[in-house]
Write a structure and sequence with these properties.
The complex is a heterodimer of chains A (284) and B (690). With 284 residues, chain A is mostly helical. Chain A has two domains: 154 residues, no CATH class; 107 residues, no CATH class. Chain A is 65% helix and 3% strand. In chain A, helix 3 runs parallel beside helix 11, helix 5 runs antiparallel to helix 6 and helix 7 runs antiparallel to helix 9. Chain B has 690 residues and is of the alpha/beta class. Chain B folds into three domains: 198 residues, no CATH class; 220 residues, Rossmann fold (3-Layer(aba) Sandwich), CATH 3.40.50.300; 214 residues, Rossmann fold (3-Layer(aba) Sandwich), CATH 3.40.50.300. Chain B has 21 helices and 19 strands. In chain B, strand 6, helix 14 and strand 7 form a beta-alpha-beta unit. In chain B, helix 1 runs antiparallel to helix 3, helix 4 packs antiparallel against helix 5 and helix 15 packs parallel to helix 21. The radius of gyration of chain B is 29 Å and the shape is globular. Classes of the chains: A mainly alpha (284), B alpha/beta (690). At the A-B interface, helix 3, helix 5, helix 6, helix 7 and helix 9 of A face helix 1, helix 3, helix 4, helix 7 and helix 9 of B.
Chain lengths: 284, 690
Amino acid sequence: MSRAETLTPTREPKARRETELTFLRLVPGTSPVHRLWAGTKLLIAAELALMLSIAPTWPMVAVTAAVVVLELLIARIPLGAFPRLPNWIFVFVVVSALLSMWSSEKPLADVGGITLSIGGLNQWALFTSLAVVLVVSGALVGWTTPLGDVAPALEKLFRPLRWLRLPVDEWIIAIGLAIRCLPLLIEEIRIVAAARKLRADDDKPAKETPRAVFRQVLAETHDLMATAIVVSIRRARDLADAIVARGGLGAATSLPGARFGVTDALALLATTALCVVTLAVLHL
Amino acid sequence: MSRPRSTPARRGRLGPGELAEAVVLADVSLALTVLGQVVPLGSALLVAAVVPLAVVAARHRLRAVITGTIAASAVGFLVIGSAAFTSMGACAALGALVGAADRRNWTRRRTMVEGMALLWPPTAVLADLLLLVFANLRRLTLDQVRNGWNGFFHVLRNLGLVRVARVGEHLLTWIVREWWISVPLTLFVLLWFGIWLAIGLSTPALRRVRDAFGAAVVEEELPDTTGAGTDAVPEPLPVALRDVSYRYPNAHTDALVGVNLEVHAAELVAVVGSNGSGKSTLARLLAGRRAPSRGELARPGVVGLGREGGTAIVSQRPEAQVLGVRVRDDVVWGMPDPARVDVDAFLERVGLRALADRETSTLSGGELQRLAIAAALARAPRLLISDESTAMVDATGRAQLVTLFDDLAHRDRLGVVHVTHRAAEAAVADRTITLARGRIVDVPARLRAEEQIATSEHRAAVHIGGPLITLEGVGHVYSRKTPWANRALSDVDLTIREGEAIVVVGHNGSGKSTLAWILSGLLTPSEGSARLDGKPIFDQVGRVGLSFQHSRLQLLRPTVLDEVRSAGGVDEAEARVALKAVGLDPSRFASRRVDELSGGQMRRVVIAGVLASQPRAIILDEPFAGLDANGRFELDTLLTDLRQRGELTLVIVSHDRDLPDGLVDRIVELEAGRITRDEPLEDARPGSQP
């Protein structure tokens, strides 16, 4: 943000609409979905994504959306949990809808002398809803699963990869640490960005040529990146010290926690059956 | 800058250092990718996300890049879905290329050519294969692309650009029909451009990282005494140091000189000293992480760092030593058989039983330190080393920790070594060792004298003017209207007058950091109004200076003078004046790299930058945290000086009540987001009241 923008006069300090990232945060409460084993939820999300990739059609979108909505309802996820996206995303979506409407995809309709492409609009709607279902089905796992359960669940899911002699232990330890460090790093990036905002030297190139502006932005990016990375490496060293203090990287072990149970089997079976039947009906 | 850079030669499993760096930097990359999805012009961030992985590749093996990428993709899947795999994969490929090229000193041209030759064929084949397998998705996506562009050409046609539209439509038809050629071709262009940008963005960052940390990355070689990787039975106590000296590699002086010391079971030994006195080095030697350069260090068995019956260490930064996501998981992290451990009992021992299922990111500093001790106790250590574990913790937390150490030594018969810069904490110790300049000195006289200087200084009156910052009915709720809504402040009325110095005190989570962000305009309060000179503060970001607790985050330029110039928006002469004002000699410090500075010096450079920008007021967030008596004294003198020289308005935010006497005129206390006390300080200097 340039200084000119931040200094635009406003009469009353009114709270601006904040963009809010609500991913990876557990929605408080408990429900059958919360109680499912983390691995089950990951498998269901992966299954839905696979089905939509194989058959990106309205019936499949309807079925997967139904599964997701059902999960949302059972888990009692309030509307407030959905991320508040910045306005430009909506502008982008609307513009792409308008462009699709002017395409030549059949069927075409004549509305007040203007030819509109219903086919184009249809495909746009399908494409957009598919993307929404995919994102929400992934976010749902985060909303209903304590983050601490994710790595142990993946450890079980990845077990077959051990037969291929892949370093699964190393990956699981890394995933656990990645989950643990992400909030700290986001906080640090937030502070670096704030520090940048407080500084007097907001992008003011000597000459306002596009080239000068580009160079200024590039130099600025370099400085911010370098700071973020140097600070992160220091954090990594602390982390390494902490690992050494615990006797080094052992095996990827975890406390006995939730396990694959009857409910998990039922949920997985029901989703799979639903998807397979839809697929069969669509293609036979 | 063409020094030879070697290829990391290690093989096999990643070591702690490699793994930690790979994970943390891949996480940074993921954070940039996620922001790239929601911020306008985010695609620039997507390219920037290559840089952290390029750093991993330049410093470590390919294996580290792969492990980091897998970890970040798995976490990313929960945030942005399967898009995380493709974007992290792309970042990893480009990063690995640029990093490896940097290590081998390739020219830009060579990197481009080799990169295209290495990366494009597999990418093209993989893309075509995926598009072939997921035929329906391919059709839908291509149709969507075609429709969008079709609509665009339709608009062009209506604007009269018929010819352009016609050519475009032909091209589009070809692209959609011959996707198996057009997609790889598009990838070719994207990849070329991607590599070009990645080189441009990464090269300066890689240079800065090399400047800060050196080119070669060595996994810290632990001396044999730790017994790491062996079956040797740990037996760290009693430990005896005879005439031990230690000098860090590449250092010109000894960090420890002729130290004699014995530590036995069931005793609490306090090691007191100021920053740079060698007390942390002593802790490292006791923990077996360093072997003495000269002299003799004898123990009956190996140190067994982090092993059962061995040695445990609790260090300074609370959040840095937590490894588990949940409190419960952290206690057993890395233990061979977690199910066997009575986690609740260990948490009970440190008073954290009720928090067993909380996520560690929600704990306060003091709680985190106690958690670190619980994790240490789970390994039944014989020797517990606290390396400045109380430095970043508030008074209540400190008292709890010291009591716990006392208890562990005298009830559980552990040998406890507590390293601290606060002489007062040594009161419960059986013995106190005082270190100065690497030597054991007899009496802590020097320290006491320093503490007294801070209070005996004579101070002159300061003129206090009219209201400068006014907060009326200010409240703030984070994540409003979501299930995570969290009220940080309510109903805060506060007037800060020109020339006034106030301290805002409160525990962790009392809302004092939120208040600092609002006072500096970085945060718009969700209720009430915050004004500077009668206008909303958030419209005047930068007019109130802020020094964050973690100073390094605020130093964005490579050298001290550059930093002050850029932060203050001033020329070189003014920057030098500002440096002098904070007590840093410009002729010595101007060209120093910021990463060479000590914590206290970094804080001074930040303050110099803030001063140079001539702010209306300065907010200092925890300015004294982690400073020893000497550092506190110097900073206090500096701030008092600055107040007397000009009409500096000062807000100090602190969890600690014991600020130097007479520095502030007024105290504001926050509790659970409300002001519970706001009054002049009795012992404020005469004449400072309006």
